[in-house]
Amino acid sequence: MIIHLAASLRNIDEDEHYLRRIIEVIHDHGAVLADEWLDAAITRLTEEISVADWTLFVQKTLDAIKSADMVIIDASNYTFGQGYQMAAALEYQKPVLVVSRDDLKYRYITGFTSSLLTYKTYTNETELIKLVASFLKKNIVHTKDLRFNIFLTRRISNYLDEKSLYSGANRSAIVRELIKKRSRNRETK
Amino acid sequence: MLIHLTSSARNLEEDLPFLRTIVETIHDNDAILSRDWLGAAYNRVVKNKNYSKVDWEAIYEESCDAILRSDLVIIEASQYSFQQGFFASFALANKKPTLLVTRSNIKNRSLSGIKHKLLITREYTSQDDLQKIVKKFIKDNAVSTKDLRFNFFIDREIYNYLREVSYETGKNKSEIIRDLLEEEIEREGS
Predict the structure, then answer these.
(1) pTM of the model
(2) ipTM greater than cut 0.85
């Protein structure tokens, strides 16, 4: 399971403690980060250097979102970059958890309607750990193959029988291939 | 032409003269706003100082709908806030030419790294400056609502096909190509 963690690079020293707790919970659940950017950000802050190439940085971030199964955003600073990443994550159909130490009650985010989005406020690290753990448990999909049951109409069943007879492939393989083909077509569009 | 303007309601008083400049420039260039939210936000935030009684869900739905209906999107991002980032990404994902203007220095911000063929990012310092930037963006993206002339080369195979279909259906070649494109659009849309 791959998780992308996002936060603001501004005030990263304030957020670091909480971000490290989030990372610990992620690892405790057997998941890994899509991009381990935190240490580099802290080094940049300590040595007072900025990101060398922002275009590359944004591209790397978007790639990390794409490769992730879920996205967690600490939006305590509520900045442009966090909103941008949230929109990208939802665009890629990723479950998103937004956590914030700042009250989100009167914020625009409370209006965002997506079944993939969860936003929560936390006041301390115990609360944060619980929120992240609950989100991970709810959205975890094991990497093993999943059993999937489906009812078939008589027409579909007959079609699959016939197709199976002619192709030599079993019905499951035919359905899997069809779904993969559609998925690849969608990607290439 | 429909244009959606988005900004942050926080610090609206500070942004207001600039937002009004954008709206005026939009109207001066024969375009209209797809969602005229500025007056309501001014009453709520500046006059009544009321942040609590806001139906954010309705505003979000209306904003998304406005972006989808718009030809262009302009984002005033001086506050560099969460929703401005969200709507920038949303507008680009929906293939809207987007102008992002800001009074803040974006040099060391992640925004400076967002590269997209439909995104133009500009810093401004005055209302005059802003007016010029917005005017140029509208002009550069103006698409006449009249039909557009389109020229392209076709090879002999395509020509023969069009001639045959034209003969069979009684339609002219242009109509056949237009119908074909319409079908493709329908197919992809359904």
Answers:
(1) 0.74
(2) no
